[in-house]
Structures are given as structure tokens and as C-alpha cells.
Amino acid sequence: QLWDNDGEVVHHEILLQSLIYDCHIGANDEFFSVSTADDGIRKWTFGGSELKPIDVNDALRYQFTSDANILIVHKNSPTQHLFTYDAMNEEILDEVMMFHNFDDYVLRYNQFNSLVNIYMNSDVDNVVKYGLEVFREGVGESGTDTDGDGIPDSIDSDDDGDGIEDNWDLNCDNIGIACELLPDENFIRTIDLEINST
Asked: Residue 110: inside a domain, yes or no?
């Protein structure tokens, strides 16, 4: 139910031939909107006049940014993804495809209104954090850097870059060099994936 500024109920009968996934009130309470499976994102003034719809079907969630013509949209077809949509020019500006399922997310912005992090749930009972910049401890500090990854050995947990943490890097030929400084060439700069049926 919707109410106006005086607390009176706003009565509008809207006949849609489609499922409704999400709804929002626009900036400065200028309109309300709903996302539908087949009819895009539909918008109406509180007086009952329909505004130009936004041609994005199957938006499971959406939100307007500070610019009312720009939306953040979550869809799950063909795969789970978020995208920024310019409703004025009817084009996708940015898109992020996800490799896991999610049905809720939070966008975090900095003081300049730039997106810095996305937090979302996953289907393995975890909250996943994605960021535009990942700051790795020790990057750029001085010191010996055996594997050339920009992190000095005094901080790096894998000095030789073979993917085996130093405290477990024990099995190597005894040639007078510590195992954590002698990369296992079977693992260095490669990834071995083992996939089972569970």
C-alpha cells in the first residue's frame, strides 16, 4: 500500500499481465516502479499517470542511483549478473557476471559516490566481498622478493611463488637452499583442479 504526504492511502489499480519481482519509489518521491518478468520496469506517478517504461525484463532486483536515469539491475538469465543500465540512452554501461548464485547484495560507495565494494550472499552459506581494488599487505615494501610478486619474503607467506605456503614447503632436494625459496616446478604459476562428483 502507498500513502501520500498527508498520510492518505493512494489508490491505483494497475493491471499487469506479468509477475512482479521488485518495487521502488523513485528519487524525491516522484514516482513508484515495479520490475516485471515480461513488461520491463514500469513506472507511475502518484497521481496515476504511467511514465515511460524501462526496457529491462526479468530484473529480480533493481535500484536507482543518485542519477534517476541510471539503475543497478540484478538478473539471473542467462547467468547471475549485475549491470548498470542507462535508461535515458537505453544501454548497459557496465556488467559483472558471477560464477555463483546469489539473491541478495549490498553496494558500498565511497565519499565520491564511486562503487568500491559489492557484498553478496552465496549458495554455500558465505558472504562474498568483491572490490575494485585489492590491497595486498606488503606490496611495494623493500626487501628480498624471491618470486617477484612485489611482496618481500619477510611478509610473503609463499616466498617462491609455487602455491605451497612456506610453513608447509618442506619436500625438496637438499641442495643447500631452503625449500621455501626453491619452487616446486610442477606447481609454480599453474593451477591444478581436481573435480569430484560431490
From this structure: no
- To which residue does cell 548464485 refer? 101
At 102-134, the pLDDT tens digits run 888 888 888 877 778 888 887 777 788 887 666
Sign of the C-alpha dihedral computed for residues 147, 148, 149 and 152 taken in this order: positive
On whether residue 107 sits in a domain, the answer given is no
The confidence score (pLDDT) of residue 62 equals 93
Torsion of CA 144, 146, 152, 156, to 10 degrees: -150
Domain termination residue (choose one: 97, 130, 158): 97
* Contacting residues for 148 by C-beta, under 8 A, at least 6 apart: 161
Q: What domain range includes position 156? A: 140-192
Q: Could you give the number of structural domains in the chain? A: 2
Q: What is the dihedral of CA 65, 107, 54, 90, to 10 degrees?
A: 80
CA nearest to 72, candidates 38, 115, 36: 115
Do the Cβ atoms of 12 and 45 come closer than 8 Å?
no
Entry pTM = 0.59
157 CB-near residues (< 8 Å, 6+ apart): 165, 166, 167
